[in-house]
Design a protein that fits this description.
With 86 residues, this protein is mainly alpha-helical. It has a single domain (6-81), classed as Response regulator (Rossmann fold, 3-Layer(aba) Sandwich). It has helices spanning 6-16, 31-39, 52-62, 72-81; strands spanning 23-26, 44-47. The chain has a two-stranded parallel sheet. Helix 2 (31-39) links the parallel strand 1 (23-26) and strand 2. It is globular.
């Protein structure tokens, strides 16, 4: 994002609306981006390269109020399916 990154935006949004659920949707496969969103209290991180079924399942799990879900598994699947380096 041009002015602030996703983690900072997440912190600002949650400060104003603490009950909101934030899921990151990104092209970045770097674990540092994912960790930053996790530290900012996002409930998940989905890669834009994931198929609809994976994305839908991750969103359903992340929005379950009893068990927030961090979507690192999708990153590992992406690495196995792709020759793209992080």
């Amino acid at each position: 994002m041009p002015v602030i990154d996703g983690a900072e935006a997440t912190r600002k949004i949650l400060a104003e609306m603490p009950g909101i659920v934030i899921m990151a949707l990104s092209i970045y496969t770097d674990e540092g981006f994912m960790a930053g969103m996790n530290r900012a209290s996002a409930l998940g991180y989905i890669l834009k390269s994931c198929d609809c079924e994976e994305s839908s399942a991750a969103i359903r799990r992340a929005t379950c109020p009893r068990r927030p879900y961090w979507v690192l598994r999708l990153l590992h699947q992406f690495y196995r399916k792709s020759s793209v380096s992080p």
